[in-house]
Amino acid sequence: MSAALITGASSGIGTVFAQELAKRNKNLVLVARSEDKLQQIAEKLQAEYQIEIQTIKQDLTERNAVNNIFNQLESQQIEIDFLINNAGFGGYGSFPQTQWEDQQKMIQLNILALVELTYKYLPIMISNNSGRIINVASTAAFQPMPYLSVYAATKAFVLNFTEALWAENQNTGVKILALCPGPTKTEFFNEAGWKRFNSNSSEYQNADEPIEVVKTALQAIEEGKSYSVPGRFLNQVVTNMPRFFPREIITKIVEKEFRPK
Ligand SMILES: NC(=O)c1ccc[n+]([C@@H]2O[C@H](COP(=O)([O-])OP(=O)(O)OC[C@H]3O[C@@H](n4cnc5c(N)ncnc54)[C@H](OP(=O)(O)O)[C@@H]3O)[C@@H](O)[C@H]2O)c1
User: How far from the centroid of its chain's Cα atoms is residue 211's Cα?
Assistant: First the structure.
């Protein structure tokens, strides 16, 4: 059986990817730490659509996480032809005041797990002359982000890495996309401890809907794009500013805007 593997499928953008691919009759492998949430999502989608769904409870910051997933799916003869590296988290605050363990896990999840899953599945897709990989970056990938310094740097990595693979794979039949959402209505801000974006705030109310982000991504990858900035026009402005202004100026503006009150 072939399936799409979605990391971080228990919440937010990942859950909506699962819903949208289920609608397109795609079998699914859903990965996250929250087993109950994954089970609920799987049961709901299986009741609605004629698809197979496998859930895998896995903390992707653990040492053998990717091997565990790969070996389990191989032993069940589940072939991954669509990989969505979506799991990720951020942490808001001045760098020296953050917890080292959080920063380390952020790098392990946002970068290492994503790169390793890509390393495992891309060669198989290339040998099949077909496949899709969406790596979830962010509008934060386009410029340094004071008070989200490590997070934004992980997303800059994801964007650069993914665009490079996109170019390497122009003739392999594998489509690869970096998805760069702006603020989106999910648990992300809660997890990041960023109170300014609490669910009652106007910032949160003005954020994009995950469904819009996911639909734009699924269309962009079919169109062969290397990256996609979905959502409101402001996201286009923010991601293009570094092309027109000196980096110091942009970074100082962001520092002032995001400085903890
Ligand atoms: N929301 C935004 O404004 C926004 C903007 C730009 C980019 N993004 C990116 O979009 C992606 C999805 O985030 P979201 O907005 O949908 O946030 P979310 O609702 O908090 O979802 C994050 C997902 O990642 C999973 N996850 C977290 N730590 C994990 C770990 N150690 N191992 C395995 N899974 C883990 C979570 O599941 P468990 O807790 O069950 O493990 C959850 O399913 C992230 O990469 C994020 O950086 C979000």
Answer: 14
Candidate list 92, 121, 147, 151, residue with the active-site label: 151
Question: Which residue is closest in CA terms to ligand 1's atom 47?
Answer: 88
What is the rounded distance in angstroms from the CA atom of residue 55 to the CA atom of residue 8? 11
> Is the domain 2-258 a CATH 1.10.760.10 member?
no
219-258, pLDDT tens digit by residue?
A: 999 999 999 999 999 999 999 999 999 999 999 999 999 9
pLDDT one-digit tens code per residue, 149-189: 999 999 999 999 999 999 999 999 999 999 999 999 999 99
Would you state the torsion angle of the CA atoms of residues 157, 125, 39, 45, taken in this order, to the nearest 10 degrees?
110
Provide the 3-class DSSP secondary structure of residue 204. helix
- Ligand 1 nearest-atom number relative to CA 105: 31
As beta bridge partners, residue 119 has: none
Protein residue with least CA distance to atom 45, ligand 1? 88
Give 127 Cα–ligand 1 centroid separation in angstroms: 30
Alpha-carbon torsion 199, 102, 142, 20, what sign?
Answer: negative
Task: Parse the chain into domains and list their residue ranges.
Answer: 2-258
Active site residue 151: yes
- Is the CB of 32 inside a 6 Å radius of any atom of ligand 1? yes
CB contact set of 95 (below 8 Å; sequence gap of 6+):
149, 150
Name residue, tokens 């990938």.
141
